[in-house]
Recover the amino acids of this structure.
């Protein structure tokens, strides 16, 4: 492996390529040959730097000199000055050398500054397949503590006092759930971990299971002790093969160490955990359907009451909590309920993990204290919207949640505040949308998902979601009427109060929240027959702006269906009847003379 | 079956292995191997590091995998913690880059500056992947 003394990086992203970065690359190679240093300097073409407004960009290492807006004719001077004489070319420099901007450790990056890691405390730090590393960070110490120093009642009390609420999205007080189940008299009780994470855009349960599986096992053993259950089930999606494999390894290691099984730590406590794989039905994340599925039946919800606390798995008292809820339990036991209450807000103590996705710079996993505002998450931790686009809405809570518009960005995140805005905490998926997203189309996407995933047991959900989807499709195709919007709203409200389970009751949320905050977009689709964001294909038209068009005919060559007619140097026009709206012409036009609206 | 005393011994013994502070006595190289990391190509990176470590005959180096570090967009991420040094985070790793890190940083103690994060105006500048010419 030869080491070059210096590396020159040239951005090869679309933005920079259209501004001549490839010519710069060629010139650079020629110049290096001319000086006879082509074997000392490595020239690398990279993907987009994400700083298109400064392009074309050239970066020279090891100095890290950052040149912006470089032109092909600048190259000889740049090579001469920087690579031959070793002097930074001041004229083009945006940043002399990135010495002071080098962030050696992720911990100093703005992304982490506002975060507080409780559930993710070990993720990215320990080896998930090595039980000793988990133990090193006080792993299984909470289990030791409850088995040797606490009664089951005391454990329930600590969880109750901590104010921990269900992190699966519903927000039911975990301690209360445990207490109700502990009170039941039964020879056999069960404890279940719900790891059937099915929301589009949510991946925090997966990350906890992949990064720190032992914390879930430990918490379940603690819960088992607290409620008097000696058997636990983890219901995890088969679509998470890595999580499943790491759970299997973790369970085996815990059994080998005697942390699961008979007589745990010599205290006489008996507890074991089994895995159950779900095969990708969204409804199986609903607790009653999940238990049906574990029993080997078809996963369909059953009416509540009776609640799982009285009659759950095989009609026995059962506690069922989400992965992230469990991940919070060991730290609560070790640090006490007061510590947990000191984080977050009065009504929603602790932290929440969010999976940031969509139109956001730092896609990834963040854990923040409750009460942090949406603005802080999206703009300070998430790094804002890429490409300088304008923020439009954020979708929280997956198909059960809703869209929150810009005017509510300063809302502190809590269970109740999000519900008041017509969304919900949900599992923690957070999908950011910018000006290029059509809210009607977003509602249609989520409705399509819930319609597909409806189990069909109750009429409002089985037929209602189908009808709502039909209306939404009609609107996105430009065939909608104002009556359709009213009918949609009426249907949504009816389904909300009449469906059997939580999934059906919340399925209309995406529709209701977009109607509430973005009704103008619906009206634009129906009355003006236009899609303001330019997403709904049926309502889009590609047109050539005559005074920008240079009459070169490149677009006509690019069109796959021959919809562009005209003569070079005279005039070109798009035949709207033939046009299939693929956008090939717009992509190819060097003068940006084709617009879609 | 382990007793509480044995667990405490494991705790003491292993703390040195996972310790992220400067007072380590061995070097630890960690590769993010959650779904996002693996999808971005962390597996060949991990194999390259292990291969390089064994090729160079390094004995006081622990190579470990870990879960989600949180910044999916900059994966594959490799973190190096050397005795007496702050943790160093390398982003957008490839097998070649990783080998260079083992050679230069782990062996010679020279941080490979090109591969740590560069942040200007809150934007990560070296968030790119190398394409072939």
């Amino acid at each position: 492996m030869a080491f070059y003394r210096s590396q020159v990086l040239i951005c090869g992203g679309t933005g920079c390529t259209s501004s001549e970065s490839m010519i710069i690359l060629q010139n650079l190679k020629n110049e290096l040959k001319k000086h006879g240093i082509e074997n000392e300097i490595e020239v690398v073409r990279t993907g987009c730097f994400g700083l298109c407004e400064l392009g074309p960009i050239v970066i020279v290492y090891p100095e890290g000199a950052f040149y912006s807006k470089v032109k092909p004719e600048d190259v000889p001077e740049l090579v001469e000055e920087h690579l031959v004489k070793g002097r930074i070319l001041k004229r083009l420099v945006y940043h002399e050398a990135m010495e002071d901007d080098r962030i050696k450790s992720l911990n100093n990056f703005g992304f982490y500054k506002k975060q507080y890691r409780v559930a993710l405390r070990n993720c990215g730090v320990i080896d998930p397949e090595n039980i000793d590393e988990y133990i090193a960070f006080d792993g299984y110490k909470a289990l030791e503590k409850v088995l040797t120093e606490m009664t089951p009642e005391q454990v329930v009390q600590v969880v109750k006092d901590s104010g921990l609420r269900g992190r699966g999205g519903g927000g039911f007080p975990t301690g209360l759930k445990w207490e109700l189940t502990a009170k039941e008299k039964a020879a056999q009780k069960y404890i279940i971990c719900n790891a059937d994470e099915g929301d589009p855009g949510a991946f925090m349960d997966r990350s906890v299971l992949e990064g720190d599986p032992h914390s879930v096992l430990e918490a379940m053993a603690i819960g088992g002790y607290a409620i008097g259950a000696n058997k636990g089930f983890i219901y995890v999606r088969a679509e998470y093969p890595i999580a499943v494999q790491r759970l299997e390894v973790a369970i085996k290691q815990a059994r080998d160490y005697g942390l699961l099984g008979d007589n745990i730590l010599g205290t006489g406590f008996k507890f074991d955990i089994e895995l159950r794989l779900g095969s990708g039905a969204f409804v199986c994340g609903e607790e009653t359907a999940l238990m049906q599925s574990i029993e080997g039946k078809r996963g369909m919800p059953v009416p509540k009451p009776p609640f799982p606390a009285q009659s759950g798995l095989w009609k026995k008292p059962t506690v069922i909590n989400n992965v992230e809820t469990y991940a919070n339990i060991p730290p609560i036991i070790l640090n006490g309920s007061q510590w947990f209450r000191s984080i977050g807000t009065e009504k929603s103590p602790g932290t929440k993990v969010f999976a940031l996705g969509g139109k956001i710079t730092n896609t990834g996993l963040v854990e923040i204290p409750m009460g942090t505002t949406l603005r802080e998450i999206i703009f300070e931790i998430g790094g804002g919207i890429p490409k300088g686009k304008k923020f439009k809405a954020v979708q929280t809570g997956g198909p059960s949640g809703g869209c929150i518009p810009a005017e509510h960005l300063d809302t502190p995140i809590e269970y109740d505040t999000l519900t008041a805005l017509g969304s919900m905490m949900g599992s923690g998926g957070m999908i950011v949308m910018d000006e290029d997203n059509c809210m009607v189309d977003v509602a249609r996407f989520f409705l399509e998902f819930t319609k597909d995933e409806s189990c069909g047991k109750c009429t409002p959900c089985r037929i209602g979601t189908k009808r709502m989807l039909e209306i939404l499709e009609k609107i996105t195709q430009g065939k909608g009427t104002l009556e359709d919007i009213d009918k949609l709203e009426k249907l949504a409200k009816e389904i909300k109060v009449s469906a059997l389970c939580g999934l059906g009751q919340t399925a209309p949320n995406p529709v209701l929240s977009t109607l509430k905050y973005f009704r103008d977009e619906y009206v634009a689709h129906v009355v003006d027959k236009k899609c303001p964001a330019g997403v709904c294909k049926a309502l889009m038209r590609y047109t050539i702006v005559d005074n920008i068009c240079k009459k070169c005919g490149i677009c006509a060559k690019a069109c796959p269906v021959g919809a562009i007619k005209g003569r070079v140097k005279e005039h070109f026009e798009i035949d709207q009847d033939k046009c299939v709206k693929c956008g090939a012409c717009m992509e190819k036009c060097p003068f940006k003379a084709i617009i879609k609206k | 079956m382990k007793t509480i005393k044995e667990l405490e011994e494991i705790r003491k013994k292993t703390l040195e292995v996972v310790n992220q502070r400067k007072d380590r006595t061995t070097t630890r190289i960690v590769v993010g191997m959650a779904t996002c990391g693996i999808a971005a190509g962390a597996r060949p990176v991990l194999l390259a590091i292990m291969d390089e470590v064994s090729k160079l005959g390094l004995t006081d180096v622990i190579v470990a995998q870990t879960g989600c570090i949180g910044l999916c967009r900059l994966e594959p991420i490799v973190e190096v913690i050397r005795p007496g040094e702050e943790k160093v985070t390398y982003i957008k790793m490839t097998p070649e880059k990783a080998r260079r890190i083992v050679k230069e940083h782990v062996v010679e103690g020279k941080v490979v500056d090109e591969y740590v994060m560069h942040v200007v105006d809150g934007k990560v500048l070296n968030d790119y992947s190398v394409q072939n010419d």
User: Anything to note?
Assistant: The CA atoms of residues 24 and 83 of chain B lie 5 Å apart. The longest helix of chain B spans residues 4-18.
